[in-house]
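Backbone-to-sequence.
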């Protein structure tokens, strides 16, 4: 095994990573407020959530929050611009409670070029971070809505362990599936989102059994594309969960 790893290091030590072109804006984002349900792989309801999106001057702020049945909490907030292409400007992820292996609070900001990460019991780390133009933390479904039919896209994502690690990201369509609104059948495109560590780490990770998981999104197309479903883990080495559209409930007593 050591000899194989050494060979891989030699073969790929001079490899370079070419940044992909940022995804062009075809459908501009605006004010939105939606409701979500998070389920286990078996279909059990784990959490209820909301997505709130608000334009703030030249930027759009997006916040997705889940409140778990067991008291756990998960929230992802970000801001971005959409001048011809999508550009992520800031990002924060908070997760805590028994649903997660450790408490996490990580963030980065393009304006300052700084990051802050607190993962588990480790001391918080902070420092400078180089953010590529095609960085898309928390923006995957947004990108998919803007891809032409049959098109793929590449980009990057940052994860914290707690130090930041850059992942290469690829989004590609896998086919169509039908869902129903009442008795009416509608078509949604299923997209595969695949991530892997950059450079040498990306080559060695599958051998060591630490390859990032694949996740999938379902996007309804047409004149107003929209998210309809997600399947995959929401934290490193986590179980596969499912996120679907939800609705307010009426008449429940506290």
């Amino acid at each position: 095994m050591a000899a194989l790893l050494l060979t891989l290091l030699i073969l790929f030590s001079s490899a370079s990573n070419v940044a992909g072109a940022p995804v062009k804006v075809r459908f501009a984002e605006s004010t939105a407020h939606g409701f979500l349900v998070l389920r286990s792989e078996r279909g059990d309801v784990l959490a209820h959530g909301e997505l709130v999106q608000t334009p703030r001057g030249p930027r759009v702020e997006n916040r997705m929050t889940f409140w778990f049945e067991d008291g756990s909490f998960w929230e992802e907030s970000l801001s971005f611009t959409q001048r011809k292409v999508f550009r992520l400007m800031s990002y924060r992820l908070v997760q805590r409670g028994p649903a997660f292996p450790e408490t996490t609070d990580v963030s980065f900001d393009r304006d300052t070029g700084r990051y802050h990460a607190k993962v588990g019991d480790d001391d918080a780390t902070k420092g400078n971070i180089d953010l590529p133009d095609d960085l898309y933390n928390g923006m995957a479904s947004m990108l998919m809505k803007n891809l032409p039919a049959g098109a793929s896209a590449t980009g990057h994502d940052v994860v914290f362990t707690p130090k930041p690690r850059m992942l290469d990201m690829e989004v590609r369509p896998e086919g169509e599936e039908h869902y129903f609104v009442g008795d009416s059948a509608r078509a949604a495109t299923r997209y595969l989102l695949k991530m892997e560590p950059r450079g040498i780490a990306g080559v060695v990770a599958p051998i060591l059994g630490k390859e990032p998981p694949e996740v999938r999104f379902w996007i309804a197309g047409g004149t107003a594309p929209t998210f309809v479903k997600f399947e995959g883990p929401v934290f490193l080495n986590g179980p596969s969960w499912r996120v679907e559209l939800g609705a307010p409930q009426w008449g429940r007593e506290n």
